[in-house]
Specification:
2 copies of one chain form a homodimer. By secondary structure, chain A is mainly α. Chain A is built from 10 helices and no strands. Chain A has 2 domains: 13-69, Arc Repressor Mutant, subunit A (Orthogonal Bundle); 73-213, Tetracycline Repressor, domain 2, CATH 1.10.357. The longest helix of chain A is centred in the middle third of the chain and has 24 residues, at 123-146. Chains A and B meet through helix 7, helix 8, helix 9 and helix 10 of A and helix 7, helix 8, helix 9 and helix 10 of B. The structure holds a DNA duplex (30 and 30 nucleotides).
DNA sequence: TTTCCTACTTATCGCCATATAAATAACGCA
DNA sequence: TGCGTTATTTATATGGCGATAAGTAGGAAA
């Protein structure tokens, strides 16, 4: 039986570029960056050479996928949220992680994040350094305040304290890994789980934290103070040279 | 300048097979399974067709890599360790996780585990189901006992309890991800970190756990009882048909 | 020392993936 | 309604990678 061919439709260059970019995200996060341009084109309902009208080569397309996924993932309100002293610290922290989990626990993000890490991109470390500077420092600061411990200005944040916050981050992110990388079942009510993880964190942390703050503690190694340099926010990637569309070739 | 060629050395078939297998692990865990057989052969100091004398195709070689890495990773003493009632529960649990972390936080394991997950292998889920049945259930059982809560025989283990143990597992495993996938710096003294994570876990968990055990709790959803079927232990993968070496071809 | 088995190499096939060049046709505009 | 621009397709080049076939030589045994 003959394949019914959809009537050819011309999109504006911008529309098509976005169309391809979105499709590429969905495609590559599923099969990895080894996925073939032919297969991608087929899914998009276009021919493979058309991709090369919009992106000079596959690598540029992948670059575009990174921008699509990494950009605008950061919600600047998170920082305000953690700073809002009108609410109790515990409530703020729990609320933040509930929000953050919603933003981060998606098929696309989890997989692209892993793929880019395994490929040796440094996007991951850039992104996570940002998280550390914008979030971890705040969480620790508020925890210190909550438990009557010295402020980071008085005693700089120690390695071990960061590790404790890393652990909470990890336990949330790992829910996504279990589901979208290992293909395991996870609880239906992720919100409740995250809430419990944050709560359990808040209950378990102070003992260890207080211990690590005692000058006698074995490995109290202050880190470079974070939160010092104030960057423009939001963008993990540079605003970035937009890939120039290929000029139509002269004919004849 | 002429390339100094190492004198050709003949290994016994078994030796060469292991040589290739070990090299393949190191190679594929670094570049992923998309890595080229030519490049692998170069690193091994052999020619690429020789690979095909020992493995019928690339997929079989990859299969061999899985066996090499997954097999014998499980230490049966872990279960005994957790069951040893002559030591306090907290001590046992902390000691177990210190040990487990040492076994699991390696470049090879972390990366192969991720690569196999992203490839859609079900090895990950098989392995992790084993961990759940052999470890998580024990940890929860001991915790319940420690805190005077009903035993799993009386009240089956709930979803949320498993989630709490997952969280500890995640926070340890994630240390490896940070280092070997994201390329981030991690503390020198991982042992101490793991100890603190386990401690913080033990301090933080009981409140949430007790809550989740109250019949009134929202989502007390008992899971299928684990630890029931006793499997031969140790092997995650089937003992597995050894790839038959290719018979030398008749000549002339 | 000679022989013979087989580990290993050289040479090469054939396919498939990225990428380019040339031809076609959809749509805006006159 | 016809024209020109350019989005899109068809056809194809080019190289790389998995895999095979045939020839070479190491070393154990006699």
């Amino acid at each position: 039986m003959a394949v019914k061919r959809a009537p050819r439709r011309r999109l504006s260059a911008d529309e098509r570029e976005r169309h391809i970019a979105r499709g590429a995200v969905a495609f590559f996060c599923e099969v990895g960056f080894g996925g073939q341009t032919r297969e991608l084109a087929k899914r998009l309902g276009i021919t493979q050479p058309l991709l090369y009208r919009y992106f000079p080569n596959k690598e540029a397309l992948i670059e575009r996928v990174y921008r699509e996924v990494y950009l605008n993932r950061w919600d600047p309100r998170w920082e305000e949220m953690l700073d809002d002293h009108s609410r109790p610290a515990r409530e703020r922290i729990v609320a933040f992680y509930r929000d953050y989990a919603k933003a981060v626990l998606s098929y696309e993000w989890i997989r692209i994040f892993m793929f880019s890490g395994l490929r040796g991109m440094n996007l991951n470390s850039r992104y996570l350094t940002l998280v550390r500077d914008r979030v971890y420092t705040r969480v620790i600061r508020e925890l210190r305040r909550e438990y009557g411990l010295p402020s980071p200005a008085e005693v700089p944040i120690g390695e071990m304290e960061f590790e404790l916050v890393w652990a909470l981050h990890a336990s949330i992110f790992y829910i996504g890994i279990r589901k979208w990388i290992y293909g395991l079942e996870i609880p239906e009510n992720v919100d409740e789980v995250v809430e419990n993880l944050a709560t359990s964190f808040l209950d378990g942390v102070p003992a260890v934290m207080a211990k690590s703050l005692k000058p006698a503690a074995k490995s109290l190694k202050p880190l470079k103070p974070a939160l010092k340099t104030r960057k423009p926010a939001t963008n993990v990637l540079k605003p970035a040279a937009k890939v120039p569309r290929r000029a139509p070739r002269p004919r004849g």
